[in-house]
Amino acid sequence: MPSERNSRVSRVDRDAIVATALRILDDFGLADVSMRRLASELGVQPSALYWHVSNKQELLAAVADQIVPPAPVLLGEDLSAASVARRLRSALLTHRDGAEVVLSTYALSLGTSPAAAALQAALRPAVAAELRPTVAAAVLQFVLGNASVLQQRLTAVRFGALSGDEQVMTAASDAEFRVGLDALLAGVTRRADPPTARS
């Protein structure tokens, strides 16, 4: 007969934990994604979660993997770095505090490999192989930063900590993203142009 502890553990699995964490994120924001809140939502003790995730950062890394689409989806049919960056930003903004979750995971080298892989693949025609990881990282950090700033401003407006119109803020951020991305890609592709492409 299974023990009470094993019975509790069997009531949840990693997929259910991650899906519930993502739902809490979307409904309430990152501040509410705690192990205690997650356990309460799943009807288990917090200790049961640690059979499936080692700590909260590992949990957030798994959530980030759900937010960032796979590399083929990011690449799509238009195999350009700009398109990959736009798709990634859209995915981040689809989820409340999505950019902050992915940014923290990226900062600790726990995730975003699909985004890096997609960017490197898109940069292949214009950037020498040895420079692609650096250029892809620069673009990825720009996307994460832009999306993070927008989401933090929108959250501040909703809580009354900042005055402004959400639609106006979003439109301004979209424009800043387009201008910044164009400038970044133009600059790095000129500097990192493969020798064979130079006249």
Overview of the molecule:
This protein has 199 residues and is an all-alpha fold. The protein has two domains: 1-53, Arc Repressor Mutant, subunit A; 56-194, Tetracycline Repressor, domain 2 (Orthogonal Bundle), CATH 1.10.357.10. It is 70% helix and 0% strand. The chain is built from eleven helices and no strands. It has helices spanning 4-10, 14-28, 35-42, 46-49, 56-67, 71-75, 81-94, 98-107, 113-123, 132-158, 166-191. It starts with a helix and ends in an 8-residue tail after the last helix.
Task: Produce a short descriptive summary.
The protein is mainly alpha-helical.
Flag low-confidence runs.
Answer: 1-9
Q: Kindly provide the radius of gyration, computed on alpha-carbon positions and rounded to a whole number of angstroms.
A: 20 Å
**Mean pLDDT across all amino acids:** 88
Element order: H for helix, E for strand: HHHHHHHHHHH
What is the count of distinct domains?
2
